[in-house]
Specification:
With about 200 residues, the protein is mostly beta strands. The protein has helices spanning about 15-25, 155-160, and strands at about 50-55, 60-70, 85-90, 100-105, 110, 115, 130-135, 140-150, 165-180, 185-195.
C-alpha cells in the first residue's frame, strides 16, 4: 500500500511520509488467519479532580464562592456578573491536579460597587490563600508574586499552564478605567505556590 501524497506539507511533512511509505512497502503482509489479541474493556478514565468551591484570603478578609467557568463568546474567560463570586477556569487544573495552574478570577467591581478581589493589590508575598474544593478539602498556598500587567502583555500561556509546577493564580482587573472600551487597562495577577 502506497500512501497518497499529503494534502498540505504543513500537516504531513514529506520526510515523514517517505518513511511511512518505506515501512508500508517493506513490511510483510499479515497472515489471514493470524489471531487478533482481545483485551477486556476495563480501562476507565480517572475522574476529574474536584472543582474549587471557595477561595479565602484571610489577611484581606476575602471569602468568595467559586463557580466553574469556561470561555465567553468573545474568547475571554467567562466570569460571573457579580464581583462577589469568583470563577475557576474549568478547562484547566484544579487544586488536586498533579501539575499546572489553578486559575481563579473575579471582577474588581460590578454595578453594585467594588468587589472583594479589588483588595488583591494590597496582598503581600508570604500571605496565605486557602482554596476549598467541592469535597471540602482545603488547600493552602503561599503568595510568591503580585503584578499589575497591561492586558495586552499578560502572558496567557503561563497563566493557563496545564503541565508546569502546581500553583494558584488569582486574577482581577486593575489600572485605569477606559470608558470607551468599558474595560480596565491592566490585570492584577497574584501567584501562589502550595504551602509545604
Amino acid at each position: 500500500l502506497i500512501l497518497p501524497d499529503p494534502p498540505t506539507p504543513d500537516i504531513y511533512p514529506r520526510p515523514i511520509v517517505a518513511c511511512v511509505r518505506r515501512v508500508y512497502q517493506t513490511a510483510p503482509a499479515p497472515a489471514r488467519d493470524a489471531p487478533v489479541p482481545v483485551r477486556p474493556a476495563r480501562d476507565v478514565p480517572a475522574p476529574p479532580p474536584p472543582a474549587p468551591a471557595r477561595v479565602v484570603v484571610g489577611d484581606l478578609e476575602i471569602d468568595l464562592p467559586v463557580e466553574p467557568a469556561g470561555v465567553d463568546p468573545e474568547g475571554r474567560m467567562a466570569l460571573p456578573g457579580s464581583g462577589d463570586v469568583a470563577a475557576w477556569y474549568r478547562f484547566g487544573p484544579a487544586p488536586a491536579s498533579p501539575t499546572g495552574t489553578t486559575l481563579v478570577a473575579a471582577h474588581v467591581d460590578d454595578p453594585d460597587g467594588v468587589g472583594p478581589f479589588a483588595r488583591l493589590r494590597e496582598i503581600t508575598t508570604g500571605a496565605s490563600v486557602d482554596v476549598v474544593d467541592a469535597t471540602g478539602t482545603s488547600y493552602t498556598y503561599t503568595v510568591t508574586d503580585i503584578r499589575s500587567i497591561a492586558k495586552p502583555d499578560v502572558p496567557l500561556d503561563a497563566l493557563f499552564d496545564r503541565d508546569g509546577e502546581r500553583r494558584l493564580v488569582l486574577v482581577t482587573c486593575g489600572g485605569r478605567w477606559d470608558a470607551e472600551r468599558r474595560s480596565y487597562s491592566d490585570n492584577v495577577i497574584v501567584t501562589a505556590v502550595p504551602s509545604r
